[in-house]
From TrEMBL:
<dbReference type="InterPro" id="IPR012427">
    <property type="entry name" value="DUF1622"/>
</dbReference>
<keyword id="KW-0812">Transmembrane</keyword>
<keyword id="KW-1133">Transmembrane helix</keyword>
<protein>
    <recommendedName>
        <fullName>DUF1622 domain-containing protein</fullName>
    </recommendedName>
</protein>
<feature type="transmembrane region" description="Helical">
    <location>
        <begin position="20"/>
        <end position="40"/>
    </location>
</feature>
<keyword id="KW-0472">Membrane</keyword>
<dbReference type="Pfam" id="PF07784">
    <property type="entry name" value="DUF1622"/>
</dbReference>
Length: 130
């Protein structure tokens, strides 16, 4: 019975890793397409366009990292060795750091967008009264 559970857990963990690889591949492809479009048709704000592209790719990479963490948790749950536990700790630390810095960048991006919108509203309301 235990061997059956281990076998199925390994199959599920492998499936979750494949899902992570697909997420990374699709996110990279989407980022590549958006980057090519940015080269061909640059926006009025190229820095914002690049930052948006980078943040979107980062979000998808964070999602993929969650999947790999899930797969490692499954593997560690059925046959925990010190090597597996170390890998799990490293991935968890990496995921936590990535999410922390990504969230900081997203918050900064939102704040800059809100400031730009406020300036734009101030300019348009200032000119509307003239």
């Amino acid at each position: 019975m235990l061997e059956l559970v281990k076998g199925w857990t390994e199959v599920v963990a492998t499936g979750v890793e494949v899902a992570a690889a697909l997420i990374i591949a699709l996110a990279a492809l989407l980022a590549l397409i958006r980057a090519l479009v940015a080269f061909v048709r640059p926006s009025a704000q190229p820095d914002a366009q690049k930052e948006s592209l980078r943040l979107e790719l980062g979000r998808w990479l964070a999602v993929a990292l969650e999947f790999t963490l899930a797969a490692d948790i499954l593997r560690t749950a059925i046959a925990p060795s010190w090597d597996d536990i170390g890998k799990l700790a490293a991935i968890a630390a990496l995921r936590t750091l990535l999410n922390f810095f990504l969230q900081r960048e997203i918050d900064g991006h939102r704040a800059r967008g809100a400031e730009a919108a406020a300036r734009e509203d101030g300019v348009s309301s200032g000119t509307a009264g003239r």
